[in-house]
Design a protein that fits this description.
- By secondary structure, the protein is α/β, with parallel strands linked by helices.
- The protein has 2 domains: 10-125 and 362-376, Enolase-like, N-terminal domain (Enolase-like, domain 1); 130-349, TIM Barrel (Alpha-Beta Barrel).
- Helix content is 35%, strand content 22%.
- The protein contains 13 helices and 14 strands.
- Strands 6-7-8-9-10-11-12 form a 7-stranded parallel β-sheet. Strands 1, 2, 3, 4 and 14 form a 5-stranded antiparallel β-sheet that branches. The chain has a two-stranded antiparallel sheet with strand order 5-13.
- Helix 6 links the parallel strand 7 and strand 8 (194-197).
- The radius of gyration is 20 Å and the shape is globular.
- The two termini are 29 Å apart.
- The structure holds N-succinyl phenylglycine.
- N-succinyl phenylglycine binds at residues 59, 64, 144, 197, 199, 247, 298-302, 324, 326.
Length: 377
Amino acid sequence: MPIARPAASVALEGVELRVLQIPLVSPFTTSFGTEHVREVIVVRALTSDGEGWGEIVTGAAPLYSSEYTQGAWDVALRWMIPALLDRYTLAPEDVATMLRPFVGHRMAKAGLELAVLDAALRAESRPLGEYLGAVRTHVPSGVSVGIQHDPAALVEAVGGYLDEGYVRIKIKIKPGRDIADTAAVRDAFGAIPLQVDANSAYTLADLDTLAELDRFDLLLIEQPLQEDDLVDHATLARRLRTPVCLDESIVSEKAAVDAMALGAASVINVKAGRVGGYLEAVAIHDLCRDAGVPVWCGGMLETGIGRAANAALAALPGFTLPGDVSAASRFYARDIVTEPAVLEDGHVRVPTGPGLGVQIDPVALDDFTIARETVRR
Ligand code: NPG
C-alpha cells in the first residue's frame, strides 16, 4: 500500500459513463497515426456523499495499446461496474483488488478507481495531491510535439512552445522522420532539454539509425521497440549512449521491476491509465525512487479531469524529470473543467481543492458527449 493515510469508504450507488469527442487545436501525429479529435470516456461515480470524476484514457482505436473506447465501454459496463456495485461500501484502495479478476483493461480500471477516489476525497475535503504524497505546489511542464509536415514545420512548432515557456521538448519520431527532425531542432535551439518518442516504431534491425541519435545529447529515447520487447530493449540499451525510457512496456509495478532487472530501461515514464490507476502509479514511483531510477509523468491528452490528477501525481518527490503535463490549451480550445490547467512560468499548478480540485463545466461536458449510460445498484 503506497498511501500513507487511506481514504474513507464510500457508498457507491451508481456509475455514469460518457463517451466524449473533443476537437484538438491542431492534428496530433505520432508513429501510429494522426488524431484530429480526442475520444475519451468520462466516469462519474455517484455515492451517498456526492459524486466523483474519473477519465478512461483509451482512444478510438487500439493503436497505442490494445485498449480502445468500445472495448473499455463494454468491459466497464458489463463487468467492472457491476462488480463494484455488488459491494455497497468500498474504499478507493480496494477498487484495484476488486477489479483484479478481470484481465488487462487497465485504462478502464484506472478511470473507475479515480472516480471512486475523487468522490471519497471530496467527501473528506482532502486534495488528491496531499493524498498521493505531493511535495510541490507546481510541476515543471514539458510538451509533446507531434510529427509535422517537414523538419522546418517542426522547428516552427517547437519555437512556439518554447516561447510559451515549456521547459522540456519531446518530439515524436518514426522511421524516416528521426535524424533530420532531431537535427533540425538541435540546430535551431541549441542545448534545450530535448527527448524523442518512437511509440514502438522500430526493431533491433534499426540499431544503426537509433545509435545515430546519440550525437544529439538527448535526455532519453522513449519506447523505441514493441511493448513486449523487454529483452530487445535491454540489448538496445547496451548499444546506445542515449538513456532508454520505457512507456508502453511499463504496464504494472511488476513490469517496471522486470524492466529494471533486465537493464531494459534506465528511465521510466509513469502513466496512471496505462498501469491501471493512480495507486499503481505511486507504487512505480516509489519503486523507482528507491532504486534511483529517474521517472516522469506521461500524458494521454487528458481532459481537465486527468490533467488535474496528473499534476497531483507529478508533484511526488521521485518525479525528477519534467513530465508531459502541459496546459490544456496545448490540445484543447475548450476543456470540460471550469479552470483548465494553464502554464505559469513553465509550470502547471497542482490543484489544492478537495479531490481532483477542479469543477466540471456541465455545459461543455454535455456539448462533447456522444454517448451516455448509467448503471445503478
Ligand atoms: O501531453 O498529454 C500529452 C501527450 C503526451 O505524447 C504524449 N502522449 O505516446 O506518450 C504518448 C502520447 C499518447 C497520447 C499516447 C495519447 C497515447 C494516447
